[in-house]
Amino acid sequence: MKKKIFSGAQPTGRLHIGNYIGALKNWAQLQYDYDCVFGIVDYHAISVPFSPSEMKQRVLDCAIGFLASGIDPEKSIIMLQSLVPQHTELTWILNSVSPVQDLMRVPTFKEKSAQHKGNINMGLLDYPVLMAADIIIYKADFVPVGDDQVPHIELTREIAREFNKRYGYTFPEPKEILGPRILGLDGQAKMSKTLGNCIYLDETPDEIWKKLAPALTDTRRKRRNDPGEPKDCNIYNCYLKRFCDKEEIRYIEEGCRKASIGCLECKKILFKKIVKELTPVREKILELRQNENYVMDIIYKGSKKARIIAEKTLTEVKEKIGFDYKL
Ligand code: AQP
What is the pTM of this model? Predict the structure, then answer.
């Protein structure tokens, strides 16, 4: 039996290089060795202000991003959270084993509360419990995520452990498979759809270069001949190391330290590599946008398969808590 994986993304905007490097690229490789469920988690996305008229398009964009990054719907389940209501039902049950003080300490709750001061809603606080339900309803062993998600996975383990302790062993405690954290091109914050500090997967080479050329590097290199330190450069840490091969990385490290290459030359090398890797992804996105019925069909089929697994777990959970009714 293969081990199980669950991971997901919120339909909060077009997917970007951070999503791709931190999560999607990893998912596409893992699907060969694990039974994978990849969710478009739309109920999570309504805990911040959103436009109902844009939601369906965002769900489609998200699924298109998954498919274009290499998720194969024949190997993996691509599902939509709101089409599998067992997730939200399990959330209510898990709420009763989730300590409020732990939820209030979650960094994303603090961040999102600061971002949306006029809308600190219950959904923001309860977000990690819904995420725990998303994961453990499939009895996932692993969750491949960017490292920003670690506190959520820790909480998922605590919730699973507490449920198992109270009602008998039901859920494995899932472990994270970490992808790197990609900062925005200004080197300040995590690349994020909401902040917009992104290179999107569907951007043209011209659009990418316009963003990459002025991006922050090692601030010691004020002039072309100033030597730099790659480890202090956001472009090196977040991008070069992910897109270039070992030889190119060595050449750039040396060239930067000796000032034999400038930041712009370094960015040109990186630009070529990004364009080479992302062009097929972009082309696939454009192709799938012409065929949205096909994409919707994949979402429906995946959600039906997901429901079967989720319902089995929910029935087991309800029996454990004494809700053993046959209607
Ligand atoms: N900058 C990032 N670096 C590494 N991994 C990242 N991920 C997101 N941004 C980065 C990973 O992508 C997966 C899907 O993320 P998400 O869409 O569910 O939500 P998010 O983490 O909240 O992503 P955004 O772009 O920051 O969205 P908004 O702005 O809507 O909150 C996750 O595995 C995540 O770790």
Answer: 0.94
